[in-house]
């Protein structure tokens, strides 16, 4: 039993090494530079070993997308836990989203197709669904005086996401305004949308 556990742990370590190597390559040279051979060279494996864990580059991109969404979900949960008022929770979550995008630029670009092809999946990843649900549930908490339909909550969520993702994309693809101005725009947008939720 112990040897089975050890083998499983070694497999998991190898899988993690492959994903870490892929992300290192991308952070150094961009997504266009990523290949199975480059990953193998980076961690001194043969290419066939990489294929034992991932059938193709798309499989690696999918796992990295999943990892990014899981990291973002954890950031959102931590941000929400800082406040009890749903308005403050929303503000904190979207600021966490902004921060995540600039701390993890290459992952963010992959997750949302900014300046790269995002990983195409037949169904939305569970982690991404959990992020959206967390935000939508918080939006619904604000609208308790006039319980909204799912469509209205969804529309408010996409209003947030469209504006904040758009501002992030402008800054990732080409230099936008300075950081102080970006923070003013971000906070104005968040507060404005929160006010519109209460209207």
Descriptive keywords:
Tetracycline Repressor, domain 2; elongated; DNA binding; Arc Repressor Mutant, subunit A; 77% helix; 2 domains
Helix/sheet category? mainly alpha
Unreliable runs? none
Shape: elongated
Give the helices and strands as they follow along the chain.
HHHHHHHHH
Portion in helices: over 70%
Proportion in β-strands: under 5%
Instruction: Give me the CATH architecture of the largest domain, please.
Output: Orthogonal Bundle
CATH class of the largest domain: Mainly Alpha
Distance between the termini: 61 Å
Q: Indicate the multimeric state.
A: single chain
Number of domains: 2
Look at the structure and give the mean pLDDT.
88
CATH topology of the largest domain: Tetracycline Repressor, domain 2
Describe what is shown at a glance.
It comes from Arcticibacter svalbardensis MN12-7. It contains nine helices and no strands. It has helices spanning 2-29, 36-42, 47-53, 57-81, 86-103, 105-112, 126-142, 150-173, 179-198.
Topology:
Blueprint: H1 2-29, H2 36-42, H3 47-53, H4 57-81, H5 86-103, H6 105-112, H7 126-142, H8 150-173, H9 179-198
Helix pairs in contact: 1-2, 2-3, 4-5, 4-6, 4-7, 5-6, 5-7, 5-8, 5-9, 7-8, 8-9
Describe this structure in words.
It holds the Pfam family TetR_C_33. Residues 12-72 form the HTH tetR-type domain. By secondary structure, the protein is mainly α. It has 2 domains: 1-55, Arc Repressor Mutant, subunit A; 65-198, Tetracycline Repressor, domain 2 (Orthogonal Bundle), CATH 1.10.357. 77% of the residues lie in helices and 0% in strands. The longest helix is centred in the first third of the chain and has 28 residues, at 2-29.
């Amino acid at each position: 039993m112990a040897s089975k556990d050890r083998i499983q742990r070694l497999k998991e370590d190898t899988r993690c090494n492959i994903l870490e190597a892929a992300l290192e390559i991308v952070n150094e040279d961009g997504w266009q530079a990523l290949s199975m051979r480059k990953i193998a060279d980076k961690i001194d494996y043969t290419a066939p070993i990489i294929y034992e864990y991932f059938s193709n580059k798309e499989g690696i991109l999918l796992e990295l997308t999943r990892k990014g969404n899981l990291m973002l979900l954890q950031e959102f949960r931590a941000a929400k836990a800082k406040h009890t008022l749903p308005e403050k929770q929303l503000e904190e979550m979207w600021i966490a989203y902004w921060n995540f995008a600039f701390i993890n630029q290459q992952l963010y670009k992959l997750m949302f197709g900014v300046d790269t092809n995002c990983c195409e999946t037949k169904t939305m990843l569970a982690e991404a669904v959990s992020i959206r649900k967390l935000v939508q549930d918080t939006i619904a908490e604000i609208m308790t005086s006039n319980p909204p339909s799912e469509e209205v909550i969804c529309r408010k969520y996409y209003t947030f996401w469209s504006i904040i993702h758009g501002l992030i994309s402008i800054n990732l693809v080409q230099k936008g305004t300075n950081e102080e101005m970006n923070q003013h725009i971000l906070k104005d947008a968040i507060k404005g949308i929160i006010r519109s939720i209460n209207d």
